[in-house]
Amino acid sequence: MSLVSAAPSEYTAPGVEEFWQPLFGTDGPWAITRPMLLMAISAGLIIWFLLATTRKKALVPSRGQMSTEAVYGLVRNGIAKDLIGSKEFLRFVPLLFSLFMIILVNNLFGVLPPFSYPTMSRIGFPIALSLIVWVVFHAVGMKKHGFIGYWKSLVPSGLPKGMILPIFFLELITDLFTRPVTLALRLFGNMFAGHILIVLFITGGWYMLTSGGILVIAGGVTWIFAVVMTLFELLVEFLQAYVFTLLAALYIGGAIADEH
Amino acid sequence: MTGNIAILGYGLSAIGPGIGVGLIFAAYINGVARQPEARGMLQPIAFLGMAITEALAIFGIALAFVFKA
Q1: What are the extents of the domains in chain A?
Q2: Interface contact flag, A189 B40, Cβ < 8 Å
Q3: Is B47 in Cβ contact with A239 (below 8 Å)?
Q4: How far apart are CA A231 and CA A168, in angstroms?
Q5: Which chain B residues are Cβ-neighbours of A182 within 8 angstroms?
Q6: Is the ipTM of this complex over 0.85?
Q7: What superfamily in CATH does domain B11-66 come from?
């Protein structure tokens, strides 16, 4: 990386430009970038892992089958069943499980050494995922209640007449705008901020270590903190995959609920 | 002293969500301590509340980089 040089002169803090890493092609909007490659690798890894651990289904599961079943059980029972309801949750489990797996693996790439880049720290990837969720929860809601009935169901029944219109517009803004935007921004912001923090600790520590004098001690402490932040980042990566899937299930459950 | 005042704005925007997330997990720990068998029911609610509360801080950091110039 350009930040780490052997002869330190002036320390420049890492910024947004650290995340622009084109690999092939021209350096422009059509370049094949590092997160694109990582996304493709993650898809391959997930397909290979799920096929390998579920091909030989046994009553007494192997270690691989057990881990897959644990993740699937978390998404199926812990997220989908609780938030969508036991009647209709089963048809949304494939979507939620795919979302959870793709986000989890791509987030974990942020701290795993050969990859070391959280794919979701480029805003395009979370936007794509949250658009899928956005289309799905509106579509299933309209399919269940009808086009008019769906928009009617946004307003809770039993409101005084004057309150119906303001509440409707508030709910409209929430459903059409706030939900998809916060869903994408939450994942992006957590991954971006966490990764830039680790880069800051490591490059800052490197600068202090190579400056000499009393700063060497401070640089060592900074690197210890970099390790601590990496472990914390591991926790955040699990948590964000869980939260994204949780909110997707909540939105779907809200759209197909009988009473709002 | 040089710097970027947008990052100061991010610091301000993180105060509210920080307090809010703290309150949510305080209530969650209280609930689990009083009734350990309610953990499975409380956990999604706690993380849901956290996810919604921290949205403001996430807006803050995104906008801090947007208005960097």
Answers
A1: 35-52+62-256
A2: no
A3: yes
A4: 44
A5: 52, 55, 58
A6: no
A7: F1F0 ATP synthase subunit C (1.20.20.10)
